[in-house]
Design brief:
With 341 residues, the chain is α/β, with parallel strands linked by helices. The protein has a domain of 233 residues: Rossmann fold (3-Layer(aba) Sandwich). The chain has 15 helices and 7 strands. The chain has a 7-stranded mixed β-sheet, sandwiched between helices. Strand 6, helix 14 and strand 7 form a beta-alpha-beta unit. Helix 1 crosses helix 7 and helix 2 crosses helix 9.
């Protein structure tokens, strides 16, 4: 789902937090297990069997469902698909934490909304500021600096912040079964991309080492930028104006513009991913559409049609209608996270 379209509703669920990263062990754990069972954290069931059958046929040159290596494009949403997204998008917590960190240089914020609401932990007042207030916060915390400066800010935050209710590093809240799926696809010469409504510069700052996906294969929402040549030190500055919202129909548009090919594999968890899965389903080559269905209230969260974050309504109907793979987190996954379970 897009950060920019759902922030007001997410903010009312806010709990102040801090966060620390430990991202290398996740990938290594996956890679050591893939040799015996490509998806060891998946229970034996329809979803696992369907994935393995798809990959087996895609890589079998004698199969009618063979897919040439150059066409093995797999796209994944991030929030709610590769890691958790409750009680609000993780990038939202970054923005709120940034306002608090920057407040010492802005004493005027104590009397200015929407900053005053954040500093007083008044989420109702923040909600009442509406989209205008939310975009003001996002612009304040994400723009007005160079791309290198923003990357450093994100990495610094990611070294200390923890999830507000789980009290663990956000990078420990990635889904172990999905890490295995990413590795399994790459081991069979699929090229994996992130196509998310999250901010592209935010994601590129620290997700590559978590998922094994390089920066250039991370696609997301972006602000406008400008080139500044200051002597022999050229910079790219982030401007406080949204350039592209990588959500819903924006996803296939960005896929076509940046990747230039339809995916043959697409995974999401919400209606914000529906158009990406529909685009993938229209491929003339055999294709695989996967929805992660959040059904585990004990180990993660349970939500779908009525959720203000990661709502899965039309997508749930489309998946049922067309026979797409629905991953039931409670039934299909032995574990959710790499640690703590």
């Amino acid at each position: 789902m897009s950060l920019f379209k759902t922030l007001p509703l997410a903010l009312c669920l806010f709990i102040v937090t801090a966060f620390k990263t430990d991202d290398k062990s996740n990938i290594s754990n996956t890679e050591t297990s893939v040799q015996k069972d490509p998806l060891p954290s998946w229970n034996e069931g329809a979803a696992k069997k369907a994935i393995i059958a798809f990959v087996s046929n895609a890589t079998n040159s004698k199969s009618s469902q063979f897919i040439p290596v150059e066409d093995r494009i797999a796209t994944f949403d991030n929030d709610g698909t590769l890691w958790s997204e409750q009680p609000a998008y993780f990038q939202l917590f970054f923005a709120i934490d940034r306002v608090k960190a920057m407040a010492k240089d802005h004493p005027e914020w104590k009397n200015q909304q929407p900053y005053k609401a954040i500093l007083e932990n008044d989420m109702e007042a923040l909600k009442q500021s509406g989209m205008k207030g939310i975009l003001q916060i996002v612009a304040t915390t994400h723009t007005g600096m160079t791309t290198n400066e923003f990357e450093a800010v994100v990495k610094s935050w990611a070294s200390t912040a923890k999830h507000p209710t789980k009290n663990v590093p956000y990078t420990d809240m990635v889904f172990q079964p999905m890490l295995e799926l990413l590795h399994y696809l790459r081991a069979n010469q699929f090229k994996t991309y992130i196509v998310s409504g999250g901010g592209v510069n935010f994601m590129r700052a620290f997700l590559p080492s978590i998922y094994g996906i390089p920066e250039e294969q991370i696609i997301g929402t972006r602000f406008k930028t400008e080139w500044i040549n200051d002597g022999d030190k050229p910079i790219i500055k982030v401007l406080p104006e949204l350039e592209f919202n990588d959500d819903k129909e924006g996803k296939p548009l960005n896929i076509q513009k940046i990747i230039g090919k339809k995916p043959v594999f697409a995974a999401g968890n919400s209606d914000g991913d529906l158009q990406m899965l529909q685009w993938t389903a229209s491929n003339k080559l055999n294709s695989f559409m996967l929805y992660v269905h959040h059904t585990d209230a004990e180990r993660e969260w349970a939500y779908d049609r009525e959720s203000h974050i990661g709502g899965l309504d039309k997508g749930l109907d489309e998946a049922t209608k067309h026979g797409w793979t629905l991953v039931d987190m409670k039934k299909d996954w032995k574990v959710i996270y790499p640690k703590y379970q």
